[in-house]
Amino acid sequence: RVFYLAAKMASSKGLKKVLLMGKSGSGKTSMRSIIFANFLAKPTMRLGPTLHVDHDNVKFLGNLVLNLWDCGGQDAFMEAFFNSERSTTFSGVHVLIYVFDVDSHEHKKDVEQFRSCLNSIQDLSPDARVFCLIHKMDLIKNETDRVKLLEEKRKELTGIAGKRQLTVFRTSIWDETLYKAWSEIVYQLVPNVNKLQEKLEKLCNLCGADEVVLFEKETFLVISDAISRKHQDVHRFEKISNIIKHYKLTCGKTQARFKSMEVKNSKFTAFVDLFTTNTYIMVIMSNPRIQSAAIQQNVKFAQPHFEQIIKAKV
Length: 314
Hints:
By secondary structure, this protein is an alpha/beta fold. 43% of the residues lie in helices and 24% in strands. The strands form two sheets. Strands 2-3-1-4-5-6 form a six-stranded mixed beta sheet, with helices on both faces. A five-stranded antiparallel beta sheet has the order 8-7-11-10-9, sandwiched between helices. The radius of gyration is 20 Å and the shape is globular. Residues 1-5 and 7-12 have low confidence and may be disordered.
């Protein structure tokens, strides 16, 4: 009864329905808890399996609500999702996230269940975006082997999907790859994201900054970034998300609130500060002639404009 009530609420309120699916034990609940419930990686090891469906309405950027369906991956539940509960489960979906466990010994079954997911999505939510997470990649110790496995999985899953576009990420709860994947996923759902990107690039140029990055306040996922000077580490933003999220949680344990921080050395200055009601901003500068106080003043003047963009509805 609760299952069908949740489905009705999702459609009536216009929430962004997100399906999180995959075999039992693949790590779906752990990653959801880290991103949206402020868990550290180690405590998620004690989380039990999801029974049937765990529904959660997650606020993101204040006015965007993700109607997250964490679907149990046990065979009995998966069979119900594809048969008796097919319409309820797969109707009105905006995003399907399918999690593959690299440690799985049931490859054939995993692929068949994914194929059933795609068929159901195609029939009932043809406009839904599809993401595949190749999870627990930390179990593959060699980086060359990880890259090879990811490409093999991408080729295999793309072949199964046929004409349907899908995006494949490698993920682990122990590093920044989890933040990379979820930042990309949520980015697809953010209203006015193109306008936000345009204004952020103007702010970056106005400040003479190397980079300006917007993070969502609670999850610290990257919403948008503007770059005027290339950097060799393509995962640096997600690493920062991971580090600051951990730091915020540590501050919380001592009843302290994280508001801002500044890092400075001979090569660059970087500061992270609360920006709009629902975002943090990070500005990085390498030009020693630019004063941090001047940048912060520009950021302060820009804040009301970004607040309006973020709060505006599509």
